[in-house]
Specification:
The complex is a heterodimer of chains A (294) and B (326).
Chain A: H1 4-35, H2 42-60, H3 66-88, H4 98-120, E1 136-139, E2 142-145, H5 146-168, H6 170-180, H7 182-187, H8 192-214, H9 224-239, H10 244-264, H11 269-283
Antiparallel strand pairs in A: 1-2
Helix pairs in contact in A: 1-5, 1-8, 1-9, 1-10, 2-3, 2-4, 2-8, 2-9, 3-8, 5-6, 9-10, 9-11, 10-11
Chain B: H1 7-16, H2 24-49, H3 58-75, H4 79-101, H5 106-126, H6 128-131, E1 137-138, H7 146-154, H8 163-187, H9 189-199, H10 201-206, H11 211-236, E2 239-240, H12 247-260, H13 267-283, H14 289-303, H15 307-325
Antiparallel strand pairs in B: 1-2
Helix pairs in contact in B: 1-8, 2-8, 2-11, 2-12, 2-13, 3-4, 3-5, 3-11, 4-5, 4-11, 8-9, 8-11, 9-11, 12-13, 12-15
Classes of the chains: A mainly alpha (294), B mainly alpha (326).
């Protein structure tokens, strides 16, 4: 039986990873839920969020509060980019087959990774933790940096905010309606096009925010885009594409399976996550909390 | 009946003379193209003919590459056995994975193929004892060409070649054979039924076709030929690496298929030729090949969704129509 402190520390690290994943995957899930598009470029938005945060920190300096402005600025910049892409290009592919949409988002992956390489080079970059959250505390013998604690609290907060927007506001009602039946919504006089752009921007914002917030704990490297999209994918597939609580659950499961998989079967922890995804797809293709597509 | 010149056969014969041009580089490029042509054509059987969008076709390519590589390097099996084994192994995996995949529709099908491919990748990446893990498996031996050298010595007018050139000839013949078989499959009643399923699966079901079984058969066949291509590629590449099965490889081969023209038989092979040639040309000028590939892809999606073959056919039809009016 492993040491309980170690188990606790392990589950905490899994939980922190889960909250990051939730933040990023919720954007992917939102876009899929409404637009019915699997956005490979979501990983690229995440990467750009990280690079942009680095850039803003370079510009703003590292004074108190600066990091938060940098993160927000990065997320907004990514959202803006997402909106432009949707508005100028992606919109014209909605009527075409899924394959074309998938390949379009893959083309974005290719282009954006080179853009990032062109601007920021290929060396590893890092951002230091915001000064207010530099220390750490000890919980049941496990070390928990304040920044990780912040992420642990941010995850549920975002989840609640998300729930509130989706279920208690007019925009949320429209989003849910668009996920169910876009034609009818259009007939009822709603500007579905604008709604789509908005949703794509919101999804990109979440991806960019995830990328920006991950910079204090992870180095920024080329290739983080293709790695993350696979992880975010697994999360939304396990939880249910387009299902918001499903994404939350999927992230929790992913974090725990990964951190305990490393404990018990160190070499095959990646494998266990993929196997879990395949099992879910086989048994419940629409995910644990998702609804079958018509 | 009008007999058309056997274009494919003539092309194959022309390709046999590539090493005679004397450029090692062109032989290398031609070999690359030939192998990818088989890989892309195998995917086209699935995407173009059956209408199943697989986002994990690299899995079978990788399985074939590892099978042939392990057999030839670790076990010392001759190429003659390792090559079909690569196809069989890939077909076996495709049968198991496909069994689950064909039960799902559209976007879920694409995702499950992707999930299985990532499982294959993860195993290749981590199972150090068998696959060499992250480092891959370098130094896969070439097939034994002693017999070919004896033939060349007995018939001096054929000239003498390097091992890599013998391998190119071998690849050419084997891929030619595979493409011929695939062509026969596509033209057979079975292949026609696949097209029917692509056009209208409900209708196919109504006329008594077991759609899933046909789709599974197409999946296994496509996997088998991808495995054969992978087996050849591992030897050609002088090593097998986990990224053979990574999802970006699956995307690459999809782009080739789309670029050449989906649903036309020789389109994907054409796509392989154009893409690899462009890659070589552009890499000598800039390192930003991915961005250029992405830009090509976007133009393709918006302007020429039928790929090169589709655009050419459309142009020919238009020219034909004009001359008919004039």
């Amino acid at each position: 039986m492993p040491d309980p402190t170690f188990v606790f520390a392990q589950s905490l690290s899994g939980l922190t990873a889960a909250m990051f994943l939730f933040l990023i995957a919720s954007g992917l899930s939102l876009i899929f839920g409404v637009l019915r598009v699997l956005n490979f470029a979501h990983g690229s938005f995440y990467m750009l969020g990280a690079y942009a945060a680095y850039q803003f920190v370079q510009w703003f300096g590292t004074g108190p509060g600066r990091f938060w402005w940098a993160a927000l600025g990065a997320a907004l910049a990514v959202a803006l980019l997402g909106g432009l892409v949707e508005r100028l290009l992606f919109r014209h592919l909605y009527a075409k087959e899924e394959l074309y949409q998938l390949l379009f988002t893959y083309a974005l992956v290719l282009i954006l990774s080179d853009v990032a390489k062109g601007i920021w080079g290929t060396q590893q970059l890092s951002v230091s933790r915001p000064p207010g959250l530099a220390g750490s505390l000890t919980v049941f013998g496990a070390t928990l940096p304040y920044y990780n604690l912040f992420i642990l609290l941010l995850g549920p907060t975002i989840a609640l905010a998300f729930w509130f927007v989706l279920h208690r506001t007019r925009a949320g009602r429209l989003i849910r309606a668009a996920a169910l039946d876009r034609e009818t919504l259009g007939v009822l006089g709603v500007n579905v096009k604008r709604l789509y752009t908005g949703v794509f921007m919101a999804g990109s914002f979440l991806g960019g925010l995830g990328g920006a917030l991950v910079t204090p704990v992870k180095t920024i490297v080329p290739g983080m885009d293709t790695e993350m999209i696979v992880e975010a994918f697994i999360v939304v597939v396990i939880g249910g594409l387009g299902s918001f609580w499903g994404t939350f659950l999927g992230a929790l499961i992913y974090g725990q399976v990964l951190s305990f998989g490393i404990l018990f079967i160190p070499r095959f922890s990646i494998f266990s996550v993929f196997a879990l995804m395949a099992a879910v797809l086989i048994i419940r293709p629409w995910g644990l909390l998702g609804r079958p597509l018509k | 009946m009008i007999t058309r010149p056997p274009w494919a056969l003539l092309l194959l014969i022309a390709a046999l003379f590539v090493p005679a041009l004397g450029s090692r580089f062109y032989t290398f490029l031609a070999n690359d193209v030939v192998i990818w042509a088989l890989f892309a054509t195998s995917l086209n059987l699935l995407v173009g003919y059956t209408g199943l969008v697989s986002f994990g076709h690299a899995a079978y390519f990788g399985i074939g590459a590892y099978t042939a590589g392990i057999l030839m390097k670790q076990v010392g099996v001759p190429f003659l056995l390792a090559f079909p084994a690569a196809g069989l192994m890939a077909a076996g995996f495709a049968a198991v994975f496909g069994f689950f995949c064909v039960r799902l529709t559209r976007i879920y099908f694409a995702m499950l193929t992707l999930a299985f491919a990532q499982i294959v990748w993860a195993i290749c990446f981590k199972w150090n004892e068998v696959t060499g893990g992250e480092q891959g498996m370098p130094e896969i031996p070439y097939p034994d060409f002693a017999w070919a050298e004896r033939v060349a010595a007995a018939l001096p007018f054929l000239g003498s070649y390097r091992t890599s050139e013998y391998f190119y000839f071998l690849t050419l013949v084997l891929v030619g054979l595979c493409l011929w078989i695939l062509r026969r499959i596509v033209g057979s009643p079975f292949g026609r039924m696949l097209t029917t399923i692509r056009e209208n699966p409900e209708r196919a079901e109504f006329i008594g076709v077991n759609v899933r079984r046909y789709e599974l058969a197409a999946f296994v066949l496509a996997g088998a030929f991808a495995g054969l291509a992978g087996g050849l590629f591992g030897i050609f590449n002088r090593g097998v690496f986990p990224d053979f099965a990574y999802w970006t490889k699956s995307a690459e081969v999809l782009i080739m298929t789309l670029l050449g023209g989906m649903g036309t038989f020789f389109g994907p092979a054409l796509g392989a030729l154009v893409l690899l040639w462009l890659n070589q040309q552009i890499l000598s000028h800039t390192q930003y090949w991915p961005a250029i590939l992405g830009a090509i892809l976007i133009v393709l999606l918006f302007v020429f969704p039928g790929g090169i073959a589709g655009a050419t056919l459309a142009l020919a039809r238009r020219l034909g129509w004009r001359s008919a009016r004039a």
